[in-house]
Amino acid sequence: MEELKTIVQRMIDAGEPEDKIREAVRIYKKRNQGKAQGSTVDPTMSQDDMGSQLDGGFSASYDLPQVDVTASQEEDTWIERTLGKNVATDFFGDLWRAGEQGLAQGATVDEAFDVYKKGKNISDAELNRYIEVSDALDKTGVSDEMREYEEIKNEAGGGVWGFMKGMIQTRGQVIPQVIVSSAAAMARTFFDSEEAALAAGTGAGVAGAAGSFVPIVGTATGAIGGAVAGLTGSMETALTLTELLKEELGEKDFNKENIRAILENEEVFEDIKDRALARGATIGAVEGVTVGLSRGVGAKLLAKGAGKGKIARQVTGIEMTGGAGGEALGQVAAGQEFDIAEVLMEGVAEAKGVVNVADILAKKEYKINGEKRTRKEVLDKINNTKPESLAEIQFDITGDKNLDNLVREMRLPVMDYKNNPVVNPHARQVSDNAMRCLVKNVAMFGLGISVFTGMADETLPDEEKDKQPKGKKTPPKKTETVQEETPVEQVFDEGWADAFVEGAMKLIDGGLYESRDQLVDFYKSNSEAIGVLKDKFPEQKDKLDKAITSLIDTFKQDTDSEEGK
Length: 565
Known about the structure:
Blueprint: H1 2-13, H2 18-31, H3 47-52, H4 78-83, H5 87-118, H6 124-139, H7 144-155, H8 159-169, H9 174-192, H10 194-211, H11 219-249, H12 256-264, H13 266-303, H14 308-333, H15 340-349, H16 358-362, E1 365-368, E2 371-373, H17 375-384, H18 387-390, E3 395-398, H19 401-406, H20 427-443, H21 463-466, H22 494-509, H23 516-525, H24 527-536, H25 538-564
């Protein structure tokens, strides 16, 4: 362990963060698994203590956690053996291990159906084969991260908290492993089990016929949903059968004699079969509905022009919800103890469900005036057609957002305010109509639709409502009588008087009135207000009169001066 000491010491000296030191130690122990027995270092030694033994009594000032440097329990894959053990190879190695586990799980389905169908009449050779594939599944190695997740979850008591704590402390590293394992199990089941393949085909036929009557589903989508329902239901039935047999055995060995003893007990075995079928059928039904719904939603969103990222997120959410719901209902149907952590984990596994709409997301279609064309033909048409002729061509683009945006053009002739074309437009008319054309083009991308938000239904365009029977005139619209508002009575108080006189004085002093006639007009137009001043506020009236008289005198002096010249 001298090498590990040196690595830790260098990282401490370099000021590396705690999480990076822990990760380095974890990678080192995996790379050197099985070599720790000859170490002179206590595997439970903390990094503080480790640092204090380095370079002649170095004393670390860091409060670092305990680090376990015992050998990894996961078996290296060819990836790690070929390229060495590091963060990248460990990640892909974990995915490889998960895939192997999923394939091994799928390999048990066909043999489990032999047990399900034949019961006590199954041959020793078939029963031995069933035990062999089940043992092979048990021997498939799991990753250190998955093992750590299970330990954390169990220590926390399971449930939602156990699931969340396990996910947080393993930094969600088990999520891609669960997804890969689930996908591999389904694939192996489909190709390995005749019963599962038959169930998938039957489900596709039945659901496809039913889907043709459901607008949001459709024939193709219904067929795919039915196939998934049949495949998933049969796989879950077989896997649950093995799980229930092991539960029935308890502490007993999973061998030929003990299993056959259960098969000979018809009452017990029939109960196990019924529970396995109930769980499988329930999960399969939910999966089928979920796939049909997710594909229907995906197709609708794509038709509305939604981006592939948005479609993938919504479909994944539907699939995860359906997966978790199916697992919960399946546990209840089989009479098993409800395990919410397993329900949540199944929801995580169904994040792979986005592949169910891969064909929808990948679909690209190009049309010119209703005829199917290639992308190249559309581009050639755009590049080789005169701008004035493009407006007369109808382009329909599906699944290619960049090209779709390119062909959304709008043209508008230069028109006057009566919408009549202008033969020789001037610059202002050209500019105004360019802006009008820009607004129309922007509307083709959906911008401005929010203007209609909150408007009454009768104000929106409606093709059906706008149609009028021949020979009938549109009845005149009823005009609502608008009740006139009662004018507010003017309050003439001292505040009003001060404000009126002050405003008038500012106009007079500001030079607004340049002749005696203009002052007379002011006086006449404000006769009512001046009358109120005379009756109620003589002081303010006197102040205003003096200002007006002074201005009139000024006008008179100016007039006399002009005459004298």
